[in-house]
Amino acid sequence: MFAVSLRTYENYNPADGIELMVKVHATALSYAISSTARAQKYLSFVIEQIEALQGRPFTSEFSIMKRFVSIVRLYQSGNVDAAKRAFDSFNGAAKRLDVQRLWVSPNLLDFETFWKRLISIDPSKLQESDTALKSAEIETVDFGVFGMGEAFAFIMKLKKLSVHEFELAGMSHSKIYRVRKNLAEFDVEDLFAGMLAARLDVRDIDVYLTASSAAMGRPRFGMRHLSLTELQEAITKYEALAEETGLDLYMEMSLEFRGVVIKNTVKNWLTSPELQQLSDDVKTHLEHFDEWHESQHRLASWAFLDETTDVGVGQRMEILLSFTRNAQVFKYPYDPILINFDPVLMQAILRQDVAKAQEVYQRLFAEYQARPDLQIYFNYRWHKLLNEQLLKVVQDGFVVPMTIEGVLRDVETVTGERRFIVPYLAILDAIREVYPAY
To answer: What is the pTM of this model?
Structure first.
């Protein structure tokens, strides 16, 4: 069952199943060391599966588990001293971040309990036995051979669609025929056009994207992985398409990509005139929507960044919350306030706007307290700790870089991933230019 679930996850990556996969892997890890015999038989297999684990949106939980498993691997291989040093560093950072265990999965022992149990077993007894479990020995369903035609047929049946509706989206009859016969795959443009014409939301495209090598797993949630050159080309293309067709979808994509380019190319982008102009353009675009959908919602964070009054910030908070209550399009625990208002807080700090920073922080904190269901997720937990330190900067009028760096380094230590903290290190550099450092 473990291997079948794993293959299902790897090929379909359904966001609503990812939390379950965290729990499955965590349970398997704890089970594997429940006795010396099980550790000898199962531990290597479970480690291999977790090391290969990838996915979103629970990337933080995956990263923590993978980092912890890498330390377990060190001990298993006989590098006892190195493993103990690595665990001490990991565990210290975890305690400072209040993540003594993987909160999203109650099935995984807290890290110290797990570690004590692990090191009670001699490393020589943790090696694979001759009858060690191998994934190849398990009868599994290979979802990798699931063709594009079957995926296409599945969505048509699920949404009660006809070929005609996809033709109206701009796809040729011959292309549709070849896709249905597994002779061709959807490209990214086909996906977007199909979503528009068939009234699909983000939940409907998992099967498309995972079955299509041409899409490269890059729906709009993943387009930030394009190069800046590709993004610039896409902006020009989608602006032209928006003007030619009058379709909001193309305008939204160009606006979103503009934001990504600004964030990655403009120094002090949070206070830049380029961002101010983008924010104005997004607000103008959003004004004419009576009902927001996923695509408009994704633009909201850009619009927030140049709200100059507390009233404006509050109004946009209510718009987002109202949207989320009435149109649940996201498949994972999502809170628009906690997600979108970190940049607003940072912008207020960089502008030395104490009143706005305090107002935004209080709203963030109140939302965090009101969502105990989200407090188990590491992404929300460490951002709360970071925001507390950032607020002190604007309140005190000076920055203590070591304090903020300490939080960020702990995140890197626990997850083993530097990419989580790189944007915030850049923000810290910008703060140093505005506030005196102590």
So the answer is: 0.64
